[in-house]
């Protein structure tokens, strides 16, 4: 997002068209006040405000047009009332002209800042695509969709993560969140994803996957010098969809609980017991223990939705948190991709615009098995 083509009059594409009309409304309003009120009243303030409003809302050309229109309108009114040659009239026109010039400089400064943000967001998107590659759209009877949306308020890379991996033990997934922003968060997320991918292929149970991840992360952080250690913690949900099964296994490591959607109903899948993936600085005091694995029925037509706290902690103007179960109840969607698209749109409606935190979402839907073809008369089905 950013400013539209410099050849036009419009400014930032995310600004509604009726907001961009505000400088024109102020300009016309000032002209009408001048023409409909006694001569001792002046609308110089209107003519000064209009270019300043145009600076953040319109392009360079648009700001210049509004500035010239303000100068022309003020000069025309002063000439109409015979005040153009007077000292007060010349002073008023000079003030409006200077404000119009300043508005152009403000516009250029804002454009330079917006350009830097666009560049930073482009780099952010490229790095995120490298860290979070697109998952397969289908594995067996499972359809998969994932998305990552960075917070608009910041251009820094976040630590939200997801991964999907088809293994000999079934389809295994992770959605997690590393505290922090920037390169430290990317490094931490890369460590978490790397340990997950290795453990997911090597370990026979989901509990063993979580255990190996914990040991590998602690071992990796233990190799670092004290000055190089990353001060962070990570939460995650691990999910396993066994091949040919109609259930899903879940391990929740201190993360927002996933949602199970089926037939318009939404259920929060709370874990039997939460576990913590890693707390740097407290690692020596964390007992690994036995990781609790929950088994949840997952028949055909079910969808499992996993997300980070950027979704559940999104607030509206009154400070109320977004409530996915309540917002999604009774809503039917065509597939996981459509569900994520609708959910993101609903989050933005709830917040009234951009969110304050990154959001990572993953949805997995189990399709009904395809019916076996009729072998026909006289033939035996294999």
Note down, in words, how this protein is organized.
Mean pLDDT is 82; it is low at 1-8 and 280-288. The protein has helices at 17-20, 22-36, 44-57, 60-80, 87-131, 182-202, 206-222, 309-312, 324-328, 336-351, and strands at 138-139, 142-149, 158-167, 170-181, 233-241, 247-253, 259-262, 265-268, 278-279, 294-297, 303-307, 359-366. The chain is α+β, with helices and mostly antiparallel strands. It folds into two domains: 17-122; 133-366, PPM-type phosphatase domain (Phosphatase 2c, domain 1). A hairpin with a 2-residue loop joins strand 3 and strand 4. The chain is elongated and about 90 Å long.
Which descriptors apply to this entry?
alpha+beta, 6-stranded antiparallel beta sheet, elongated, disordered N terminus
